[in-house]
Every structure is written in C-alpha cells, then in structure tokens.
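task queued by scheduler; priority normal; single chain, no ligands, no partner chains; default sampling; output format set to structure tokens
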Amino acid sequence: MTDRSITSCDECGSTYFVESSAMTSLCAECAFHLYGYPACEHQFENGRRTGCGWDVSRSKSIADIISWESS
C-alpha cells in the first residue's frame, strides 16, 4: 500500500493507517460510528479509502448501528 504505519481494527478487522484514527485500536470508520469521532473522507482507490486505508469491512455491530441510524 504505502510506507505509512498500518494496524488492524479491533471492531471490524480492517487494516488502516494508524495516524488516520483518533482511537488506538479502531479504524476511523468504527471510531465514528461507535464514539462520534470525525469520519474519514470517502475517496476510494483499489477498494480502500485513500485517506485512512480502510477496506470497507464492517462488523455486525457497526452494520446494525448504520441500519438503525438510517431508519
């Protein structure tokens, strides 16, 4: 991907760029839905967000939250 530090999200399992999230063990997407931290820009390249490296994985918990938010 790049030479940026990468780790895995404890919630969804996606790899992401460490510096892109306000939380140590969650990608920016999960941190946004679970704790209200800022979301990453939605720019994709090769199936990943270019800003944070998230691969669009979602846990059932996050999918349920998104479903509840949109209803």
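post-processing summary
- The radius of gyration is 11 Å.
- The helical segments are 28-35, 60-69.
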